[in-house]
Amino acid sequence: MVETTSSAEPGVTATGFGRVLVALYAVMAVGACSRSVVQVATRFGEAPIAYALSAFAAVVYVLATVGLARRGPGARRLATVACTVELVGVLAVGTFTVVVPSDFPDATVWSLYGMGYVFIPLVLPVLGLWWLRRTRSTG
């Protein structure tokens, strides 16, 4: 049997450090949603790929926030999928924006590995997946 030194109850993600993660994901969700709504509504034709990716990132942040904040196996699965999609997305989009910057005339949340957001989009899913693993039930 594996013991955890976490103050969190096994299987519960929104306690202790998890509250910080939920708050960070909520801030990113609000920021990404606001940014993408303005971009899509006012300038979609200028950079449709970038703005669609920003909208997609916003949805991922909302789902991760909900998954981390709620209890139960369904919420854990949602959080795990959202954090994994976020990590893959930020790595893929980040690499693509470095290799082919001309395809992104405007930045997305995940451009240059989240550089416009102080690399929080790169670090946050790693922390989220780590926390989900740390708080999993061992039964």
Give the tags.
disordered N terminus, mainly alpha, 4 helices
Distance between the termini: 9 Å
Q: What's the alpha carbon Rg, rounded to whole Å?
A: 16 Å
Strand content: under 5%
The major beta sheet can be summarized as: none
Give the assembly state of these chains.
single chain
Shape: elongated
Unreliable residue runs: 1-6
Q: How do the helices and strands follow one another from N- to C-terminus?
A: HHHH
Residues in helices, as a percent range: 55-70%
Number of beta-strand segments: 0
Q: What's the rounded overall pLDDT mean?
A: 89
Structural class: mainly alpha
- Our count of helices gives 4
Description:
The chain has 139 residues and is mostly helical. It is 65% helix and 0% strand. The chain is built from four helices and no strands. The protein is elongated and about 45 Å long. The protein starts with 16 loop residues before the first helix and ends in a 5-residue tail after the last helix. 35% of the residues are buried.
Summarize this, please?
The protein has 139 residues and is mostly helical.
List the helices and strands and how they pair.
Elements: H1 17-43, H2 48-69, H3 73-99, H4 120-134
